[in-house]
Design a protein that fits this description.
The structure is a single chain. The protein is mainly beta. It has a single domain, classed as Beta Barrel (OB fold (Dihydrolipoamide Acetyltransferase, E2P)). Helix content is 4%, strand content 34%. The longest helix has 4 residues. The two termini are 25 Å apart.
Length: 99
Amino acid sequence: MKPGKVIGTVTLGVRDPAFHGGRWVVISPMGADQLSAENPSHVSSAWSLVAYDNLGAGVGDAVLYVEGAEATQPFDHPLPLDAITVALLDSHQFSPPTE
């Protein structure tokens, strides 16, 4: 699982019926700068990704997401899916590792 922040939503004209009940969100991965609040915008310089969301995450919400084959685990049959939200974060605390 990786932490991220929802920075937008995606609107589709046509989608696979298997995705009924969910929607698509744009997630900015959260690294050390975003987790420690050193980056006030909370938007990473890393590539953003589009993830399937059936949790109801909104813009500005912190989430945990998974990518790859693990993203298809909640479904009974194979789907064209690469990322899915798995948790909404109420709060988080981050302490950078010390050397």
